[in-house]
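User: Okay, second chain of the day. Same drill as before: sequence in, structure tokens out.
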Amino acid sequence: MFMFKNPNNSSSLFPVENFFGDINNILYNSEVIISWADENMCFLYLFNNYYKCKLLLTEYRLILIPKLPEFMINEFESDYFTIPIYSFYKIEKGTNNLDKIFFEIIIESKNDFRIFKLFLNNIQFYNNLKEIFLQRNLSSNFNVFAFKYKLILENKDAKENENFIDGYKIYNIEKEFLRQGVNENEFIRLLNINKDFKLCETYPELTYNIVTEDITINDIMNASNYRMKNRFQTLCYYDKKSKGSIWRSSQNKIGITGARNLNDEKIFKGIKKLNENKELYIFDARPYLSALANRIKGGGFENINNYNCKLIFCEIDNIHDVRNSFNKLKNLILLNEIKNINNTNNNNNNINDNNKDNINLNNNNINLYNNSNTEHITIFNNYNFFSEFENTFWPKFIFQLITKSIQISKLIKNGNSVLIHCSDGWDRASQLTALSQLFIDPYYRTIEGFIVLIEKEFISFGHNFRFRLGIEYNLNENEMSPVFLQFLDCVSQILFIYPTIFEFNMNLLIFIVYHLTSGKYGTFLCNNEKERKFYKIKEKTVSIWTDVYKSIDKFTNNYYNKELNDNFNINFLPFFKIRLWEECYLRYIYKNSDKKFFNFLEQFNQLNERKNFMEKLKINFNNKDNNKIKEIIQKIIKNHKEVLDDLNQEEKELIIKKDLKKFKSMNDLTIINENE
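Assistant: Same drill. Structure tokens below.
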């Protein structure tokens, strides 16, 4: 039996197996059940039909168990009907109702374009669902499943799995920078000037910095006051072959008065000493006009006359533009899906079906904004799709990030040093530093190296995961933005074009995307190391990388070629190479790209909707094939669900390809288009 927590928050044992059957393969041991609804309380709206659906709400996720025809079940990803609570973007009541008994609720996920429309007659279940959604808060460990998951796995894996790896220990700053070869340079030193996060709350406690005869630790500390959020210049990467290096910081505080800081300027002179024969570059990730406007707020950009360097503006848009672009992409995909549904549904009005497992009702008010499993062929057959995709600006943003990162990587290989910053230095700066290193160093294209890269550039250096992913309910939505998802999209582009140079495959990227907002792991719950230390994330939660290594074969690229990886070099990527990341954004939109399934689905729906009419249709068959069709239709009329289970592939193909083209209903209700 599993623990069931009733609405008054007292715990009791509930024989949930009697309701769902054997759920040992569904729930984790000790995963607490909050609420449930049986199949008479809920219908799932899918493919223009209403299917009976069981609901199970736990402290971690909402599980839907719809009663679908057998041929439909395998067309969904295995986790399609499981939605982690922390992945919810919104839960709201809709304006429609079903038979005046069932009220509509719409659940929308954050990053994977899933939208579920349910019709429910259990108000208590809805209240429980809404309550647990609103309780998302790191201040209470109970409300974050990651803390519970740690207890579930504690000691078990360490004792039973010889390959157990603590994901939080994969990245070690000293080990990583020694690998890079910083010990060979006398001017780069590991400092603890940020001990207890007193100098910069959003930086790690240990950082590598430039220390020369002219630059002291006090100089670095004084210079930090001249950088936004005190995010001073610190080393990200050192290329021991070329002596080029990548540094990061936030914007300076030059303001409209043109304020200077001699210590800040001195640090740039120290960085240039790493390779005095090469030019020093500053890559400001922002558009020039945005950087200029920041001077009014006390920020701005470097005066190259004082820094003796070259300044390049990357023209990369901010988090708000990224969020708006992603929403446009989401709407584009869903609306193309809806167009296909509407086109299919245009000929299916005035339907009245009394089948209790698969209900079709004549309801002109039903909103078709749902996440049905429509084929991607329909989306791409829209001749305007690719121009509309470009108009979302998403491919432009991806292209800009990749192009500038390639440019930076070429400079590093040439021995130049580059400092990268945006406004605060934790969004666009993290994207550019990470992607540049991905192009430079073969190690970062291995599984371990990619993990180290993410831990170093995003997690350790303070990318605001808690804000950007909307981890807690009461956060400002204006701070949400898929910045890290955009980085993963960039990686997927390179992986798709150069599949042999990566040790990991697309599964790893998809796994990361899914668990960015699942709340199962502690890796992406916080904004910075100070927060992680406060909430004891490493002690009380499991790292996502722990489970990656437990299933390492699943994420290993069979086409990986170490020699090609070691010798990889990229100079340019044309814009036309940028593609829609289908494996991610269309993962839940379609599974089977074969049009046969969707044709069969359409014919199945049409047959089901008109079975009462066909009972009255007296049709004589003369040949063998037509007699077979007649037999199948008669079975469907007699017992729809049982027949569906019995149909073999040959019978399905007969339905799809052949004699249904001959049938036409009365009252202009066409079963199938003869021109198809």
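The chain has a mean pLDDT of 81.

User: Thanks, on to the next one.
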